[in-house]
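tool_call: predict_structure(chain=1)
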Amino acid sequence: MNTSLVGRQLELTDAMKAHIESAIETLKKYNLDIISVRVVVSPDEKKGFIVEFSINIAHKNTIVIKQDDKDMYAAVDLAVERAKKVLRRYHDKITDHQIDKDEDEVSLEEVDEIIPMELELYKPLAHEDAVEVLKDSKRDFLVYNDYEDNVKVLIKNKDDISKVDIEDEKPLSIEEALEKLKSEDKTLMVFIDEAGKTRVLHKIRNSLFGLY
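tool_result:
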């Protein structure tokens, strides 16, 4: 399991790092294939500290948890407890093939989940052809590759179909893009990730998002 600890606008002390790493270790007890855990800590004038956990599990949704507290250590502990609820749900599904309904609803309300999506259209399309495909479908938007292998997005408006441009040329992490999408109350955004790839993030329903 790869771990990444990031301090934004503050330097993480050895004690902070040790506490976060110890918290991450407790997630292993569910015997799930956790590929990576990324933790970002940042100060906030009103909330004290904001801690973001991004947990990548093989063949499962990426779990994104944001927690704030006046005390950084408490924020970490609260975030981990919320993560445990989701991991326990995954574990129970695998071992017992049952999910407690009440626990499932609480987890979905508390945690943002991101589902990796694949392009439905692998054949490159011209803009005009993509417009026709979207017109003939019941979907609200279409993600496709053009002939130069660039990711393009069309969205179906009330009266026409328009292209969705990249929100910002500045690279964004998945967590940053998610926060921006939620704060601006949008259902879809196109952005450049930290690896320089064009990505598309869209809201499926409350706390559930798809990522191309």
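agent: The radius of gyration is 19 Å. Proceeding to next step.
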